[in-house]
Amino acid sequence: MSVRYPTSSLQALLSQIGPVDQVGIDERVAKYGTRSIKKAAKLWGLRTAVTMVDLTTLEGKDTPGKVASLCQKALRPADDASIPPTAAVCVYPSMVRHAKKHVGGTSVKVASVATAFPSGQAPLSTRLAEVRAAVADGADEIDMVINRGAFLAGEFAEVQDEIAAVVEACGRATLKVILEVSELESYDNIRAASFLAMQVIRPGDFIKTSTGKTSLNATLGNNQVMLEAIRDHYLATGVAIGMKPAGGIRTAKQALTFLIAVKETLGDAWLNNTRYRFGASSLLNDLLRQLEKERTGAYQAPYSFSESAESY
Fold first, then answer.
1. Rounded to an integer, what distance in angstroms lies between the CA atom of residue 306 and that of residue 308?
2. pTM value?
3. Which residues belong to the active site?
4. Which CATH number fits domain 10-304: 3.20.20.70, 3.40.50.1000, 3.40.190.10, 3.60.21.10?
5. Per-residue pLDDT tens digits for 13-29
6. pLDDT digits (tens, 9 = 90+) for 254-305
7. What are the two backbone dihedrals, phi and then psi, of residue 295, each rounded to the nearest 5 degrees?
8. Using alpha carbons only, what angle is made at residue 173 by residues 171 and 176, rounded to the nearest 5 degrees?
9. In b/e form, how buried is each residue of 233-271, taking b as 16+ CB within 10 angstroms?
């Protein structure tokens, strides 16, 4: 049964879900980078990270041709046929139908940002219409932004009701709820917003750090706060929610450290693209370079791989 919070103070909400130990979070994530990864585990992690990438283009100059190229890279990231496809391609709603032509019927999903991304500053009716249009055009996944103004004003019921309305508009499409962590300002706020979202979305939906359009995106710290919220929600309800850090993850080394955080916090059940994604398209080429280095013993130049779309 979904939980609705009335208009309330953050302190009242945190009294129910527990506050964040910021020092503890920072100390824990500092240790992830010290973990030693053996070669077999590294290869597995690199390949798994490729399968978790949402390959993205979110520019005003996007064209059907650019989306077609993006889809081809998602399906075949490198000349090496053993490299798996990415999880999804992510585009604006107007480009969904073009992406669907190229990846429909494959393992690669079509994701669409929606709800007046990235600001969310549009009437709810407009935001819901955008979601319905994207789903009608073939979107398998919707990445929505929450109403940060309502959250910061303590209007928690409004935040949850809007997310619930988007869930309904999604139909069978998977929903990823973007918190925009840089605008939430504190670990306590990130934990609170995570719970507000998780209590109205469905098993298999996601919470996501960022749009990638602000100064601060995914960090190990805010990722850890959200992973622990997912863990606590799962232990209390048995409902498994996915996680997507987005923006700022550009290197294979970073991706492997994020996967260590997942394994140590949530376990192996979250180490797949049905429960964990990277919203960081520029990451893909570095993953490919590292895989080629492991295969041949030599680094390839960055231009050896086709350019990815923007990171978000």
1. 6
2. 0.92
3. 143, 208, 244
4. 3.20.20.70
5. 999 999 999 999 999 99
6. 999 999 999 999 999 999 999 999 997 789 999 999 999 887 776 666 555 5
7. -80, -40
8. 115
9. bbeeeeebbbbbbbbbbeebebbbbbbbbbbebbeeebb
